[in-house]
Amino acid sequence: MSTTDDCRNVDPGHIRFYDNYVPTLEVATYLINVAQKIDPPGHDPGTATECHVSSQAFCVSGPRYTLPPDDLASIFPPADACGNFGQQLPHVVLSKQGLPWERNIFDDDPAKTPQTPWMAVLLFVAGEEIDGKPALRSPADVEVNRTMTATLSARRFKDHKTEQPDVVWPDFAPNWYEEQVLDSTNCNVIDVSGTAFRLLTPSREDLRWLAHVRKVDPSAKDTAVLKISPRGTYSVIVGKRLPTARTDRPVRHIAHLVSLEGWQDYITGKKTLNGYARMISYRSWSFDCAPQLKEDFTHLMNGLLREPKELNRPVRFAIPVAQNQKPDGTFESDYAWRAIQQGFAPLRYQTRQGEQTFGWYRGPFSPDPAKKFVIPDESAAQGDWLFFDRASAAMIYDPRYGIFDLSYAVAWETGRLLALSNRAFGQSLLEWQRRGHATVDRVAERQIQLAIMRWNLPLGRRFAEAEMEPVTAGAAGAAHLRKQIRSGFLTDDFVASLVTDFSQLLQPPNERGALFHEQPFVPSFFDSAAWGQPQTIFRGMLSAPAARTLVQEEGAKGTETIVDFLADLYLLIGVPFETLVPHASMLPVESVRFFHIDSNWLDALLEGALGIGVESSRDLAYQKLMKDTIRAAVCKATRGKRPALVKEAGGALRSDNSSTVDPQKMTGMLLRSALVSGWRGLEVNGYRKIAPTKNDPAAPDIGEWIQPLRIERLDGPDGNILLCLWPEVPAVVTIDEPHEGVAFGFEDAPLDVPRPNANRYLYLRQMSAKDYGILYPKDSKKYIDVQPYMDDAQKLKISELRTRIQSDLGGTALNIRDFAVQMVRVPQQGVFAWHERAAAESEGSDA
Fold first, then answer.
1. Model pTM?
2. How confident is the model at residue 512 (pLDDT cuts 50, 70, 90)?
């Protein structure tokens, strides 16, 4: 693997395979010896040499007794899943690309052969016995869980005294640098019978072919996955035993990711295992396998749109209404019907007077586009926001029915509470307002000083009059005022002007003329009505176009913390789930909902957050002036939030080259399904256009990909809710099986095979540079019946199957990545298209 490689070289929807990723230094202890020889001058070389030697020991450490949670990206089949997994080999995806090769336990020579991984995936049938002994046995001295895993101290691997004499511990000793953590480290172990160990543990040769590296484009994955593996590079460890499928009942299976360190001599046959092997298990999980179960990716995806009785399921973000609950023609019924169809939910509401009633509430998600009203149209005057100084000001009252719409009041209060809980934002907001007030004060102070000079200091009159001349609006006027408020303006420029005026005073009277006697006497500025009224001065300054521009330009500086927090709000980060989904029926289990974002709700949220800084009318005036500037910065920062997740970590995401976001065009999707929790790293893509084909009328136009604003799993007890936000309405949304987690597996028999019950066939892929990885055409008959390459325990005969694949491909030798390309199944994908838009674009293309 090239160290200069990055995710931008991986095409969307593609996978890049590598044999392995061997670190430069494996996990071990090293000693550096440094020697320096000195030959003093005047002596023969070598006869009086001084030699200074120093040694320094250091270690390269790595996981041994347990894996950090972030190192394990995903597992397959999903934990506790119930589905038809009989055609797929279990596997583990690791977020560290070199983890399976960090320990060279077999002392492989990389120059001669690929290094053997030190980890493996073992699959057991729950309760199975091999040669009359339980394959997995419960340790007698510790408590075990449902996967037969027990927890014990890592100290036991150094002092492994046990009451069970038939337990064999791994043959390794803790390193010197591990001594201080042995007592505080717990690890999970399993006891595997000697027969099961010999039968189920892959051979040294098979281990090389059951681990490889994959690289994918992470641009469409959720936030948690991006943070853990920003480059999209993973290592995959595959088991060699297929799950057992029975038609009469589900079969429970238990899978373990185990360490092979200390077992290499037993794997190679140098030692014979008598008794039970106590192996370290880094991850264990169970699942049920049966053809009739429907919790695999395909059935779960289809279930999002279809009921078991083949009834269509809704995808609008609104409370579903049964047929017998539709409006009966009365005004009241029509009124309630329209409100519910627009995404409102009737919720209990207690007025300030204590009355119990209900009010309408709709969060930021709307089934239909919402016309904006909180902020002005582009043609309106700048700063003409609809201001909410409190939550009650954002309430909408329907006088005919006496019902309140509380949506924007809740948004305002939510923004306020989230802002109050963020100390950094509150401090930055107050500092920002103080800087803005200071800018206005400096402008006003300069105008006062110039006025005093003009009417009371004859020597500075010309200078003052020149500086107080009307200036143009916009950037030129702002630049003029910025020059006046800079430090040293009066002391530098006025002194220079004073020299000119003073030289004229030294001239004879007949040459001076009436230079200082043409203007009538004017009272001092201190005698004017404006003096002593800072609020009048403040409003006067902000009414001047040049001053407004100056304040906006200066106010746009140093707002990073403020804008960053408000951009989070625009992406609904931190907003409680109940605020987003007010009624359970809007997002039932195994459902998908599409929606528009109500930009008014977002702006009310922003109003509430900024409202914590309003303590006076002066604060209010300043915020009104700056809101358009702040909102524009927030929209720009909103676009950059997701790329920033991986930029610091050296990752790269695709981009559609857009630089800002229009909140009124934002849309999104909520997915609540076992797909989210079971298939970690789902890839969700939105496309602007449809490119229909003969076989797929809803095929997306790959070149019209929409860069997502947010893809994130929301907190919840099941972890099965995924939120996606886009800056515009997609014509097509695709949900792909995680490409780094595509399983090794097989397909049903081809139609021309006279064995209808055969369901484990491997369809071969081309190996040429042009068509690498593409399946051979159906009429080529490039497929293999895998059944002859399996033993009685459902284990694959890796070496024999690999030889058969090489033979069918013309005898070309396969390396590890080529074998992986042949073994992966076709990734599954769900496609959601906007019917009307798809039909219109399809008709247009046909024409």
1. 0.85
2. very low
Break the chain into its structural domains and give their ranges.
7-26+62-299, 28-60, 425-555, 761-823
| Contact assessment for residue 785 and residue 758, using Cβ atoms and an 8 Å cutoff | yes
Phi, psi of 812 (to 5 degrees): -70, 130
Please give the Cα distance from 789 to 793 (Å, whole number): 12
Average pLDDT estimate for 676-688 = 94
Token pair listed for 614: 């309003």
Q: Phi then psi for 227, rounded to 5 degrees?
A: -65, -35
What lies within 8 Å, CB to CB, of 417 at 6+ separation is 608
Confidence of residue 838 (pLDDT cuts 50, 70, 90): very low
Kindly report the backbone phi and psi dihedral angles of residue 31, in degrees, each rounded to the nearest multiple of 5, phi listed first.
Answer: -130, 125
What is the DSSP code (8-state) at residue 382?
A: T
Alpha helices in 38-179 (DSSP H): none
Percent of the chain with pLDDT over 90: 51
Q: b/e string for 152-177 if b means 16 or more Cβ within 10 A?
A: bbbbbbeeeeeeeeebbebebebeee
Instruction: Tell whether the model's pLDDT for residue 130 goes beyond 50.
Output: yes
Distance, in Å, from the CA atom of 542 to the CA atom of 484, rounded to the nearest integer, reads 16
E-strand stretches of 210-364: 211-216, 233-238, 251-259, 276-289, 345-350, 356-361
Closest alpha carbon to 592 in 674, 687, 502, 672 = 672
Using the predicted structure, report yes or no on whether residue 711 has a pLDDT greater than 60.
Answer: yes
CB atoms within 10 A of CB 221: 26
The β-bridge partners of 677 are none
pLDDT per residue as tens digits for the range 788-803: 999 999 999 999 999 9
- CA separation for the pair 58, 29 (Å, rounded): 6
The pLDDT of residue 400 is 84
| DSSP β-bridge partners for residue 18 | 213
End-to-end CA distance of the chain, in Å? Answer: 47
Report the C-alpha gap between 100 and 212 in whole angstroms.
9
Q: Is the dihedral of CA 605, 606, 607, 609 positive or negative?
A: positive
Q: Which of 603, 600, 623 is nearest to 612 (CA)?
A: 623
Distance in angstroms (rounded) separating the CA atoms of residues 807 and 537: 90
Please name the residues in contact with 12: beta carbons below 8 A apart, sequence gap of 6 or more.
Answer: 217, 219, 220, 654, 685, 702, 705
**Above 50 in pLDDT, residue 209?**
yes
* Residues paired with 596 in a beta bridge: 366, 667
